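The methods section describes the discrete structure representation at length, but only in general terms. Each protein is reduced to its one-letter sequence and a matching series of backbone shape codes. I believe one specimen quoted in the main text would settle the matter. An entry of this sort, consisting of the sequence and the corresponding backbone structure tokens, reads as follows.
***
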Amino acid sequence: MTITEAHTRRTTAAYDYADLPALMGRMTGDEKHGPAATSTLDVLWVLYDRVLRVSPERMDDLDRDRFLLSKGHGPMAYYAVLAAKGFLPVEWLTGFGSYDSPLGHHPDRTLVPGVEIGSGSLGHGLPIAVGTALGLRAQGLDGPAVWALIGDAELDEGSNHEAIAFAGPAGLARLHTVVVDNSSASHARPGGIAARFEAAGWSALTVDGRDHEALHTAFTAPHPGRPHVVVARVEPKYA
């Protein structure tokens, strides 16, 4: 099935947060990266359910918000949320990772409706988000917000620190980052994530990554003239 056909044959059934475990359960096989996926589930749901200005009907709208999954090596939760929100057919989930499935172990923007970037290699999403925010500003498009979801282990990559250091002084106020912190970084200290962003001129908040109201409040907090980061702390990956 092509992406165009998927747009017209997309399921019309309504799904809610409670349905996500069952949707994720449709995806089986090797290389699921379960902990990487489940750590992002609540963040993804709150963003797509209550924050992002994007829908299956406006995937090509220049004024849409852009969401970039940098943590692309664990896309199961992402696919489940996209299916729940009608971006792709639920039936696709059962073929996850198979030879002829568009749902690969890393998301592919040319195959999966609603996906903005191909991702998986650590450290790429935030630099791309910075470039996207710059490009939108250069075009005079002040409405779209750019969101990047990264994992705490990605902060071991120097490319992210270059992006952080640039975005603050550049005043990229439409740039937002969510760091899902499951204590998997090799080089970390308590409170260090938010402090690193704040030192570069970002607005920063740290919240419980499973608390939907806390996430929503943090995601929608004002941050005039500055990029914004939300550190979403969840249970340790290897607990």
DSSP finds nine helices and five strands in the chain. Strands lie at 66-69, 146-151, 175-181, 203-208, 228-233. Confidence is low (pLDDT under 50) at residues 1-12. The CA atoms of residues 29 and 88 lie 20 Å apart.
